[in-house]
Amino acid sequence: MKLDSKTLWNEAGRVGLVFGGFSSLCLVLKEGAALTGSMFLVQAAAIILWAVEFFGCILLMKKFMLDLRDKFDGVTMEDTYCFGRRVGLLSGLILASVDAFLIMKLPQDTVADVVNELTSSVTAQLGSGYAAQMEQVVDRLPLYTFIFQWLYCFLYGSLLSGILSRYIFLQNKFQDGGDNGDGNDLTDIQ
What we know:
Structural class: mainly alpha
């Protein structure tokens, strides 16, 4: 089966849904740990779930890129790179939406406490002129979170797909020793 642009988008959409769901699950578990109130549990869950998410995404991306290479004929390094970038873009859309939604659903007293702490620490260091600007930032926090989370996922997906697409095709070249007829291959020595 040949890989065209539409098929590449469809495959990236399917895999992006898996990545977005996996990352969103990790985010919701972190939020769930935060609700317990135990500082140790919050920090331990944050570190463990970050590592699971980070390395899980690497392993999942490698698996899906190998699947793409094996499923379609004529897949190039550029195809797998574009696939990974699209997965990062689409999964980032899901994760950024969930993250912004969770921020919008925070209880108002929690938001007020965080704003008061931030405002007091900023005004103590930078002066009272920044208090109004802090209020504006907090009002737009879901938007800023959405944009930066989506950008982070896209850049992470692009970097990861750039590294893995090269690795996958180098691995494929050295997989079978081959016989080039020069007498120096393992198959020629016997």
